[in-house]
Write a structure and sequence with these properties.
The protein is α+β, with helices and mostly antiparallel strands and 132 residues long. It has one domain. The protein is built from three helices and seven strands; from the N terminus they run βαβαβαββββ. It has helices spanning 20-23, 59-71, 87-93; strands spanning 16-17, 49-52, 75-81, 99-102, 108-111, 120-121, 126-131. The strands form two sheets. It has a four-stranded mixed β-sheet with strand order 2-3-7-4, with helices on one face. α2 links the parallel β2 and β3. The chain is globular, with a radius of gyration of 15 Å. The relative contact order is 0.21. Residues 1-9 have low confidence and may be disordered.
């Protein structure tokens, strides 16, 4: 079995854009991890209101950053896979007592690298977490 085989195939890209119906709700929020950024969102100070759809290949470090920015009083909306059994989820996210919205169905993400012509359904459930 290679890295693209198995229960959930590994994506060839980390550049999956937020579905439009979610993105439009948070249009006035700062995005610390935009496509082709000129900065590393893990190494900068975030704004007062932030919408974060992080690269899913590095959820531990992004969860740690969410925790740090939340403790500074920042508002954060986090879109991540619903992997509630992970260490980072329990160590960095749950202690902040976020509001969790379980999204019904599978989100269709926009392929920003053009390896797919149309939005593609994620092979996992997603959640939105609100940190106030």
């Amino acid at each position: 079995m290679n890295e693209t085989e198995g229960y959930i195939k590994k994506s060839l890209s980390d550049n999956w854009g937020t579905p439009e119906d979610i993105k439009i709700k948070y249009i006035d929020y700062f995005d610390p991890c935009p496509y082709k950024p000129t900065f590393n969102g893990l190494n900068i100070e975030w704004k007062e209101k932030n919408f974060v759809n992080p690269p899913y290949s590095d959820l531990k470090n992004w969860s740690k950053k969410v925790n740090e920015e939340y403790k500074k009083g920042k508002k954060i909306i986090l879109l991540i896979p619903s992997r509630t059994d992970t260490k980072y989820f329990h160590e960095y996210l749950l202690p902040c007592n976020p509001k969790i919205e379980f999204i019904k169905g599978r989100l269709k993400f926009i392929d920003l690298d053009n390896s797919s012509k149309k939005p593609t359904a994620a092979p996992f459930a997603s959640i939105l977490m609100t940190f106030n």
